[in-house]
Amino acid sequence: xxxxxxxxxxxxxxxxxxxxxxxxxxxxxxxxxxxxxxxxxxxxxxxxxxxxxxxxxxxxxxxxxxxxxxxxxxxxxxxxxxxxxxxxxxxxxxxxxxxxxxxxxxxxxxxxxxxxxxxxxxxxxxxxxxxxxxxxxxxxxxxxxxxxxxxxxxxxxxxxxxxxxxxxxxxxxxxxxxxxxxxxxxxxxxxxxxxxxxxxxx
Length: 202
Prior knowledge:
Number of strands: 0
Distance between the termini: 55 Å
Helix content: over 70%
Strand content: under 5%
Oligomer: single chain
Order of helices and strands: HHHHHHHH
Radius of gyration: 17 Å
Largest sheet: none
């Protein structure tokens, strides 16, 4: 289940990267690069921080195959992917949900404190998108008012609450990821944002 979530998260983020690159009218090479850094950027940073080198995607070619296949699929069927902004949002949301759980599990395997594990999960979920947005000359979503990293943190908290109960690990993974996804969807639907500390000067 853990490996499956990791691959699914890679696919979701790769497609979200392709959609952003399309919006920026990049060439095929640019699209592939953005897809790649979006999919593995957060995981690469995570692995480097916990000393897990070579990083995961370098040891398992399935990650590269998943990214390339997803990118080619999105390129070929780009006209079938209606409502670009909605598609981008959905794939990005699915990606952060899956990667949050993956990052937390990696932290636990490294015997890290639960708080650090949640931070690691949030970083894994968020920083591929940060790199993507920077390369595409956008302000990263995580630094805006939208509920993004906060959803990852809530999913992380749900994970550590759930493992205290006699629940199968696979269900803990799934439920925690869904918490992230649902929190993000609800936040956008009902326009829930973090407080704005800036006020216009009169």
